[in-house]
Amino acid sequence: MEDKFQSAYQEEQERLNAALEEIDRQLEKLRNTPVYTGHEYTEQVLEASREQRRNNLSKLRTEPYFGRLDFQEGGQGERKPLYIGKIGADREQASDRPLVIDWRAPVASLFYSFTGGTEPASYESPDGIVEGLVYLKRNVVIRKRILERVADTYDRESDGPAVSDEFLVYRLGENKDNRLRDIVSTIQEEQDRIIRAAKNTALIIQGVAGSGKTTVALHRLAFLLYQYKEQVSAERMIIFAPNRMFLDYISDVLPELGVGNIQQSTFADWAAELLGLELTDTGVMETLNRWFENKGAMPVLTEETPERFKGSTKLIGVIEEAVSLLESGAVPEGDFSPWEGAVLPRRMIMRWYKEEYAPYPPAKRKERVMARIHRWIEMELKKSPSAAALKDRKKKGAQREKAYAGKWPKYDPLTIYKQIFRAVKPPADWPADEPEKIPAAVMKSTRAQLKKGHVLEEDLPPLLYIHYLLNGDEGVQKFDHIVIDEAQDFSPFQIAVLDLYARNHSFTILGDLSQGIHAYKGVHEWREMQELFAPEHTSYHALTRSYRSTMEIIDFANGILRGGVKSDLLAVPVFRSGNPVRLLKYGASRTEDISAALAELSSRDYRTVAVLTRTLADAEALFAELSVRFEDVHLIDGSMTEYQGGLSVLPLYLSKGLEFDAAIVADADLSSYGEAAWDAKLLYVGCTRALHELWLLHNGQQPSYLVKAAEESEAAEGWQVK
């Protein structure tokens, strides 16, 4: 066995040397080729191609590939070793085998989909299905041009097991830094199916904590750009993330995959820019404070909770009726007369408005009609009998044209929204009564905050819908593909509005209902989103394997879901074992104990360690105490745009999407978490942030589901550290 490994290692070392030599030679030749700066189009295209190759080869020269697949097409003839990397590269001399095959190429799908066995394997090429035999599937780790590891996960000619997770476990066991990394060398079969799914579909992905949802979505963007390069562009793709810090956390993945220029934003930032609004963090913090900062006093959640109601699609009919009323009464009463003796009959203006410009949305229709009136005025001015009359008529005409335009409705989304909620006086021809479809409590609270000048996050979808009804999508970029992360916290109305700006319903919508701690605004079932699309335009996928945490952590977190949430959306852990989850009861000093736990974990070979608290107030107080004892500790309070790694203190509800080598959950007891499913979801989110080690500190009085989870998973108690 040892001899076979040595032989494989030597073989791969020789191949690596040859590949690096080829890459260096090509790169040197390109760098010595003068850069074309002229204006001839053909040469510009050639120079762009050369520059792309320079960039690709520069990346390849440190880590050219990560996998090898020996494939015999048709089950006969030559077995070809295919080397797969993040970026493809051809040999300088013509060959039937590229130097490196791009991981997104059709044949490379075999590297991810093949799970062993002696039966023929197949992949879908542009020319149809290609079938053949896989003889070898090998993972290699190359860092800075050095071959570090060789691992065969399948060998047809070996007596060993068909497929092994040994390489996957090795990669998962590596410690984290302060950025999400690509998984291109360890993509699993179920993840690959999602990555390579058809473009014109709204994919809804339920993925357990640590299943790689975010990374899969980012790899899917890279795949779509490769597969549909003539139909889509990076500039017309967008990723919606829960907050700006999370955008920073994922910012390295796409560049590592050789993809740039994809837009990244929060929904609030994108919507505010489109609407021309300036949002403050005041409303966001007020909402978070109301739902998270009062321990054990979560507001009652119903379908008429303002955030939940306004996030449903129930407002659509109300908005359409309001815009329709404005539209029907838009043309001012009476004929238009720019000066004495000149009259444009209202019936003519109505004909323009209702017939000639009927296909345009209201705001655009008003623009066209007013432009037509302006042209009519100019034609009438030509009939002026003298220069003096012309001058007088020009002045009067401009004044009366402006006054006439002012009589039209104000096609401003915020004004119309305020009129709907009676925060300002509605037009005279609107019904005097408030809309019956809006619950009284929603009406009252929304009117109050609008009168104070507050636009909250849940107001953005209805405002965007009003904007769309008024203006259509003219002048607004349509997206080739939209990724929505943490989608369980998105409302159906948000998705419905985004679909207006998406080509062919092309979405990747991913989340985890078990982490739905923002249930006051998000969905409770994926059906709420699926129903927004025709059945042929959507598909549902479930990712149940968790690659983030050890088996001990996953078993403990599953216990919380079973006992506290009564959920069957449980994670299946990859076989990666670690230390047991540790439950520690406070002694004489809570601060001393948390400090001791942090000191112990930070003394190990961990790059990221977090202390998770129940509230932001708890995090701020604890940070003040810990910053005296530790030199490099950071407070994450929701205002940050960059995750710095190292030691962090943050409220648990701000930790979603992040992951840490080790996590300490402070106050994991009844003083902070009750018996409700919502409390259990909070703790589930916190526990599943940890990759390698999880400690929970408590006062001895814990929720029943936590006690049961500890018993079922054989969690350790006490301060004895192995």
Automatic annotation (TrEMBL):
Keywords: ATP-binding, Coiled coil, Helicase, Hydrolase, Nucleotide-binding
Domain UvrD-like helicase ATP-binding: from-to ranges: 186-550
Keyword Coiled coil carried by entry: yes
BP-aspect Gene Ontology terms: recombinational repair
GO molecular function, one term: ATP binding
Stretches of the chain forming a coiled coil according to its record: 2-33
Residues at which ATP binds: G207, V208, A209, G210, S211, G212, K213, T214
Taxonomic superkingdom: Bacteria
Pfam family, one: UvrD_C_2
Protein name, UniProt field: Helicase UvrD
Lineage, highest ranks first: Bacteria, Bacillati, Bacillota, Bacilli, Bacillales
